[in-house]
Amino acid sequence: MLRFAFANLLSRPGRTTLSTLGLTIAIAGMVGLFAIASGIDDMLEESLGEVPGVVVLQPGAPIPLFSTLPAVWAEEMQQIEGVHVVTTEAWARVNMLDGKNVFSPPRLLMGIDIPTRLQLDHGVYPDKVEAGRFLNVSDIGHPNIVVSRQIADDLGKGVGDQVQLNGKAMSIVGVYHTGALITDMTILAPIDVVRTMARIDPGTVSCFYIEQMKGVAAETLVERVQQTFAGR
User: Fold this and answer.
1) Among 19, 43, 82, 198, which residue has the least CB neighbours within 10 Å?
2) Which phi-psi region, left, alpha or beta, contains residue 56 (left: φ > 0; alpha: ψ -120 to 50)?
């Protein structure tokens, strides 16, 4: 089998070159993302320290983009003592914007579960919208997005304009600005739309965001979540 595979590649040197090039680009892209991830803790602490929630990722995943967890865990997390709201997220990489390949700076597509997201007492993005509006339940199932001011400026687009995102036409309904690197590279869309675009299984999520009840420390909540899901 191996002999046949190598013979096939050698008989088509052009394909071999393209395959190798594609692999190189993919690895370079991952290295770039991991380089960003290496400083994620410091940046999140600096920019999002006022948000007292907990992000639950797959063990070993540096950022939500590389994490996959069972969606049904949300129900179990909601029953943990001290939990106020559990909301799910599905993440994907933005490869193309308006027909142009996206390499640096990277852009991430964050699918949010809108009904539970709106139940949060402290939301990073809704409070930072400076034009248009944040996503609401009327956006479910529709290709509507909220982008950062940086992304809007780079594209020369604003509220009401359309953007070709990974080959799909998306409508900008809001523009936000946080001033933080991690958040301002993110485009928000309804989670069902992101699942379809990125072919993410409906039974999985990238991560959970848990907001605790008032008076419950984040450290305490982390311990309870770890105890509940130990060994899974």
Assistant:
1) 19
2) beta
Using DSSP bridges, classify how beta strands 144-148 and 168-176 pair: parallel, antiparallel or unpaired. Answer: parallel
Alpha-helix residue ranges (DSSP H) falling in 38-148: 40-48, 73-78, 114-117
Q: Which of 116, 124, 113, 121 is nearest to 216 (CA)?
A: 121
Are the beta carbons of 54 and 127 closer than 8 angstroms?
A: no
pTM given for the model: 0.78
- DSSP tag of 213: P
Radius of gyration (Cα) for the chain, nearest Å? 20
Alpha helices in 127-173 (DSSP H): 149-155
Query: What dihedral do alpha carbons 227, 228, 229, 231 form, nearest 10°?
Result: 60
Determine the length of the chain.
232
pLDDT in tens, the chain (232 residues): 433 333 333 344 443 333 333 333 344 444 444 444 444 455 445 544 545 688 899 988 888 899 999 999 999 999 999 999 999 999 999 999 999 999 888 999 999 999 999 999 988 889 899 999 999 999 999 999 999 999 999 999 999 999 999 999 999 999 999 888 778 899 999 999 999 999 999 999 999 999 999 999 888 998 999 999 988 8
How far is residue 105 from each of residues 5, 47, 73, 150, 229, measured CA to CA in Å? 37, 18, 33, 11, 35
For residues 13 and 181, give the distance between their C-alpha atoms in angstroms, rounded to a whole number: 41
